[in-house]
Amino acid sequence: MKKYLSLIVICSLCAFVLLSGCIENKPPMVNILTSSTVGIAPLNVSFSANATDQDGSIDTYLWDFGDGTTSQEQNPTHIFTSPSTYNVSLIVTDNSGASTNSFLLITVVPPQVVFSPTSEADTSDLSNETILYCEKYVLMNDTGIASIAHKEIYLKFNLSAIPDGIQVDSANIMLFVTDLGFFEKQGYEKGIPYPKFDNSGYLFIAVYECENTSWDNSVLNDSNAPSYNHTPIDYQQITSYEGSGENIWVSWNMTVFLQKIFFHRTKQFTLVFNVEPDPYQVGVPITYGYASFRSTQGAVAHGSETYPQLIVNFSKK
Q1: 3-class SS at 4?
Q2: What are the residue ranges spanned by the domains of the chain?
Q3: Fold exhibited by the domain 10-109
Q4: Region 157-183: what's the mean pLDDT?
Q5: I need a labelling partner for 275 at 20 to 30 A (CA). Which of 55, 158, 221, 317 fits?
């Protein structure tokens, strides 16, 4: 009897061992938790491996941060020093040798980006590919203003490469002045208005928002130029006295406008530039004024970086 019992026990143990060898080890499950997936360089990110193994335990962790560095900690911290998009991977292995991978993208943006227009043109017939030309002409008669004509500059920008989660701290757009025309102010003699040349004054260039980004720079003209919001984003005064307004940079503040763009809608827009009267001297209109700015192609031709530049400083929300 004892012999049979011993045999039964031995057979049971053998069966258990055989069955145990036939049970498949289930791989662990894991997902990556982070303090941030988007930010400004240098970006310090805390990682956490949320890993479980239903038929055993987690034995090892191997992180690859996508920049040539690794870690074997469960919850490492890493600093991404350079702007780029990093493919971070994590391999967890259980006590039976089964492993699972998980991946995550980290996007690092430079603290400052200089954007060039994706398209640029003006509505004048005087322009060429090396300059951008704007002009305002006011026809006067004895009773006042008879008609007004504009020549405007259109610059198209696309900032959609900047990911959500990034905000604008400050921004300005810069254009390089290559030429200014003398302008006329309305003078008075015995109550009769007459135009006169005055090269000791100044003119204002205003920048406006235009939501239309479908215009074609090769055919843009007065008749097909898209309309725009006539409340200026910013004014800048440029003096024309003895050429002091030529061969200089002019800058307009774009901070509030770009903060609105990033918060409310797509990051594609058009900016329109035009000569305007002095906003602080109502009733003293400019009757003629023009300004030329260097285009991107003009900057290339001059071997310089005097192309239109939208300079944006970023921070994380």
Answers
A1: helix
A2: 10-109, 112-316
A3: Immunoglobulin-like (2.60.40)
A4: 89
A5: 158
